[in-house]
Predict the structure.
Amino acid sequence: MWLEVSEKQGRSLFSMKSGKQCSGGVANRGDLPGALSYDPVAVYLSEKLIMDWRRIVKKINLKVNGRPGQVVVDPNLVLIDTLRGVYSLTSVKQSCDRKGQCGACTVIVNGKAVRSCLVKMDDMEGADIITVEGLGTPDNPHLIQEAFVLSGAIQCGFCTPGMIMAARALLDTNPNPGTEEIKKAFRRNLCRCTGMSKS
């Protein structure tokens, strides 16, 4: 059944494909706009939908790019879907069918580089999350972003946000890393334009 859920004045409002809207056991009849009826089927359905909806979603408190907030999501949803779908942070890319193989979706969670396609929202309570959008702006880029541009460290650009976040996580913990430490920090990030070589 197609279903859309929204919140209105503290109550859950369900819009069904049939055109009916249910809120707390009251059905809004599609054939008579604005007319309310206490259809027993609609009452049962709306209450069941509310109970089911509340069972499958969870309130998650988190901070994204310095801004604290709360999302109501399925706890089994992965972080990439919340960042792209709820926060519209499109720098977080999906490239390997959520297998954690490419690093294009890398973000920083509580100071560590994390592949957001593998992390469930149920584990994000109280998390501090940073994406490329939280590093800098086109007019005032972060030093790492400037370094990537000045060094020509971009091809198509698809993997670049994940690379930048991996670099930021590394430099936050080790401002002067050696070659092996750099390789280890980027071991989960692939650049398809360069043949994915890890040399």
Summary: The two ends are 51 Å apart (CA to CA).
